[in-house]
Amino acid sequence: MGLKSAAFGGDRLEKLRNSGMVSRSRMKLWMIRATTSVLLWTCLVQLTALGETWGPRVLKGWPSCFSQESATAGGGGGVAAALDVKSSPELPARVLPQKRVYKNNGYLMVSCNGGLNQMRAAICDMVAIARHLNVTLIVPELDKTSFWNDPSEFQDIFDVDHFITSLRDEVRILKELPPRVQRRVELGMIYTMPPISWSDISYYQNQILPLIQKYKVVHLNRTDARLANNAQPMEIQKLRCRVNFSALRFTPQIEELGLQQGGGGRINKNEIRIPVVERILALDIDHNIQVYIAAGEIYGGERRMASLRAAYPNLVRKETLLEPSDLRFFQNYSSQMAALDYLVSLESDIFVPTYDGNMAKVVDGHRRYLGYKKTILLDRRLLVHLVDQYNSGSLTWDEFSTAVKDAHAERMGNPTKRAEAGLPTEALAKVDSFAVDTSSLCLHAPAKSLWWTG
Questions:
Q1: 315 forms bridges with which residues in the sheet?
Q2: pLDDT tens track for 214-246
Q3: Upper half-sphere CA count for residue 433 (Cβ side, 13 Å)
Q4: Is 191 helix (H, G, I), strand (E, B) or coil?
Q5: Which of 91, 124, 156 is nearest to 366 (CA)?
Q6: 272, exposed or middle or buried, with CB in 10 Å at 0-12, 13-18, 19+?
Q7: What are the GO MF terms of this UniProt record (predicted)?
């Protein structure tokens, strides 16, 4: 018995030793697998981040910005464009900005209201506010219920991944609330309000931030003109500019269609209140130039456009330039259609807004930022007077033409003085749309500069 017991004990000990060796081997194997998994996940995360830059170009063949090269390649189809980009040594991998690390004070949700360019300006405001308050911004919700009646989501118009990653060195932006925070919202633990219009950034610091800290989530349900245009800290103005001219990039699909509409000069025609032909001809614009009407329905329709078409036969609209098969995906979405007009207006040789609306202001500022591209800002009041004089015979054509050109010599998108000096605080908040005002700040103008440079 003793021998058997000893033998049995020896066998058990040997089995335990073998079992220990197997366990150690399994542990090593598990450690190798775990390390490999971590490395693979790290590579996957990096590839996903780089995919924001390369994905739309290489995998889909969509160009990411306007250029002569992309315009030339645009006609060759998606596959050819993808191969050209993939093999081109001139396209370095985009280095993402370093994430800004800060103590999160809560979450800011916003619902934009108005048309495309009104919402665009509001998004710039909300990013700057979120950055100043050290909160997390949830990707803004776009207006779906107002006059425009467009169900488009943010990602249907703007490149949402580019928006998030390009600003990550300033503010944390998420596509949706984290699950635990979402559950709080579903239980009613959220504060919803419209902020006061034309407010100073101190209003958000003193009034809105305490609400965010209390409720964790604040929802601003109106965003139009909720932050004053002027007299804000320099970092606020620079960030608004950066969002507008860099972070808010349209989707690759919208940019591709914008490229397909390439051509000569264009004129933004929102409405016709004074004879359009006389004012254009008086500026000696080439009759053979392509004139693109960047607008919806024109008041008076073809009757109003007949004289313009007679003078400029190469008169086009997106409906005439694009194939119905291309346009049908955008046709019932007013904001996406407006995005197409925005891109064409931005890239045109000449931009002539005839209506001083949000699009005219934002495009004007964007074209200044891109290098003072020729933008003719019509002095409509003076033109009415000159046209009346010409029609009555008080002015000859040469006199009329000279007067129009002299009046617009300094209204071609060149740097001009801003009108803020000496204005009362209330007026100062509203003067000069920030979308144009802040373009100078993108070029690192001095804090006290009174000059347009964008």
A1: 291
A2: 999 999 999 988 898 888 898 998 999 899 999
A3: 22
A4: strand
A5: 124
A6: middle
A7: glycosyltransferase activity
